[in-house]
Specification:
61% helix, 6 helices, 113 residues, 0% strand, mainly alpha
């Protein structure tokens, strides 16, 4: 099991471990490989102790707090309260980083309305 991981990451770890055993991948190393994969994801999404302390996300300067953790519907709900300049900054970030089509289309609509 993973120390300090959320229940979601624990389930993900167990699922990967079972999958590797079933497929006979990484014999006798299933736990190690599954843990490495899940820990990389935890680091990427800022779920590790070090990442939480640093909180160095490229979206820290955006007008929507914790942008990297939001889903498309959550982002769209928050667009009404933003100025055109703030929408442009989110659009630039989205194009350069996540590049989610649904968000970009909605941002373009907000800018042209």
């Amino acid at each position: 099991m993973l120390r300090g991981a959320s229940p979601k990451r624990q389930r993900e770890f167990l699922k990967l471990e079972r999958q590797f055993k079933k497929e006979h991948r990484y014999p006798n190393r299933e736990k190690e490989v599954a843990a490495r994969i899940v820990n990389k994801q935890r680091k990427l999404f800022g779920e590790t102790k070090d990442a939480k302390e640093k909180d160095n996300y490229p979206d820290n300067n955006l007008p929507i707090k914790n942008y990297h953790k939001l889903t498309i519907p959550q982002i769209v709900n928050r667009l009404n309260s933003l100025s055109d300049g703030e929408i442009r900054s989110i659009r630039t970030y989205e194009l350069n980083n996540k590049n989610r089509h649904g968000v970009i289309v909605r941002l373009n609509l907000e800018l042209h309305s």
